[in-house]
Amino acid sequence: MSKTIIISNRLPVQLQISDGGLSAIPSVGGLATGMKSVHSGDDSLWIGWSGLTDEDIPNILEPQIDHALRELNCSKVRLNKSDIEGYYFGFSNRTIWPLFHYFLEYSEFELDFWESYKAVNQKFADAIIEAADEDDIIWVHDYQLLLVPEMVKAKRPNATIGFFLHIPFPSYEIFRTLPWREHILRGLLGADLIGFHTYDYERHFLSSVRRLLGLDVSFNDIYLEDRVIKVDSFPMGIDYHKFSEAAKKSIALQGKHRSDLQKKLDEHKRSAPGTKLIVSIDRLDYSKGIAKRINAFEYFLNKYPEYKEKVRLIILAVPSRSNVPQYQLLKREIDELVGRINGELSTVNWTPIWYFYRSLPFENLIDLYTSSDIAWLTPLRDGMNLVAKEYIATRTDKTGVLILSEMAGSANEMNEALLINPNNFEEQADTLKQAITMPKEEQMARNMFLQKRLQRYNVEVWANEFMNSLKSQRKAVGTFVSE
Ligand code: GDG
């Protein structure tokens, strides 16, 4: 019987060392949840990095780690500190990430990063080749592993390989600037199915394949020697039920059972009735447009001063990639902006911005979603943006307004949200006013459509549709080769 192998940079597992020894706790992130139906039972295996480098793992613990991972049908790829520096913090996050998010000026074309990326992709590919039989189904995830499909196909030509990119694929004019552009395309073309969040990313990829490799492309099929590679879009959904149920639980908590964060938010609502809470939640990443959002908020307060003391912006910025210089600079910029604006505009009763630089437990994230009147998400580029979808899923009474950047992949499916261009402060100021004054009936009408769509196309459906398409590609490839 064939098995399914999933590969991502990180395993869906958190390793913990305690008195009782070592344990591997399954993580509850979006991808792990979505892949539950695919990664279940002994006929599936998830290969990835454990989060600990060779230098972090004492030899004596190695067998224990492997055993704990095996219990969860996981297997680790061993990486050392220098791999992580070159492949992860280097090529993945200082070359590909900025380039694919249109931050051309941040993208570093360093030969050392590239060499490390190739070597580490080969380590992942070797781990797959060792584990995979000829007729297995292999699903590779994301921008850290763009070369893996070709490396695996070379040794396992009959395996069916799928690849899904979680970030945007940029337009040809951007992608062509990459010195190793043909290698990256050829790496991906080892897959039989290549999936993107949106139709636009798919078109950009096909255009690069046609123009840089001169291959035949017909609709969404690429012809490469004796193979046909299918390219398609699969917009990722969320675990709708998990978010709506958690929201019901959060809202139902009474008195002393309410979380400290909820108590603080309740107190705020009591002391300043009618004040609107605007929330924004992102990893601290320049692609998310956090600094521009803060500037746009200041612009709004200057344009519509009647809203001073009537609105508060809550920013949750989750620490991310703090080894990369651009992220350190951004952190400083945001600290200064928040400090300056709060310093200039605060009154004895009002602080315009509450800024949290940390990760919150899931329950608190839900408290924030359920307590806020408006979610304001302004990425300059974003593959999908799941926060937008999660906010809508937690609005169990259907109230709440979502303001969403049209540069997020999720904007394609969320037309009933208020869509904005994050570079246009004038438009955002007016949209904030529209959100603040939007009648409840209109909020509910908009959210009803959004919720229905998100319920239907949830993360499990996303994973199953990709897998079904991959399986039918296997059949199609079989037919093509034998003809
Ligand atoms: C990449 C692409 C694409 C956030 N803060 C906390 C927390 N979160 C959770 C959210 C959400 C996830 O993190 C963030 O997902 P996004 O989709 O918004 O963004 P990226 O991390 O950039 O993800 C993106 C995604 O991959 C999937 O393909 O949508 O475009 O960039 O689920 O809930 N969770 C907890 N505490 C926090 O403080 N527990």
UniProtKB/TrEMBL annotation:
Superkingdom of source: Bacteria
Gene Ontology CC: one annotated term: cytosol
GO molecular function: alpha,alpha-trehalose-phosphate synthase (UDP-forming) activity; trehalose-phosphatase activity
GO BP: trehalose biosynthetic process
Annotated family: Belongs to the glycosyltransferase 20 family. In the C-terminal section; belongs to the trehalose phosphatase family.
UniProt-recorded name of the protein: Trehalose-phosphatase
Phylogenetic placement of the source organism: Bacteria, Pseudomonadati, Bacteroidota, Flavobacteriia, Flavobacteriales
